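## retry 2 of 3
previous attempt timed out at serialization; input unchanged, resubmitting
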Amino acid sequence: MDGALSIVQNMSKQNWDDEPMTAYLAFKVAIRIGDRDLAERCLEAVSKTTDHIDYLGACIAESQKAEDIYCAISGLRKLHGKYEHQPPNKIHLPALFRCAIRLLNYLLEEPGGQDRKGEIVEELCSEFDAGE
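## retry succeeded, writing output
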């Protein structure tokens, strides 16, 4: 993993911007090593592409597979934020809202979730507001 991380860190900005597959692969590395900052940067790069939403969906799936709920929620938010007003045929926004709400609810139930209850409840409310 160290070798893969080194390659990711030495990539030029153009690689990230021009090729969403590069950002997706970098995301997989970030998730595996637990680097949320790098994962968020990858999600941002993937979400900027206009015709490759499949990579963003794959990032969300990888997040859930790695049990990184925070990255999964971030990916879902980027996806429904991008397509909120003009959803493509592949995206069913109510399903995205339900997934985000389910994951936020999961955060409340995990150990330490009650310590962040106010923040998570606020995020839940914003998801319900966005779904209207």
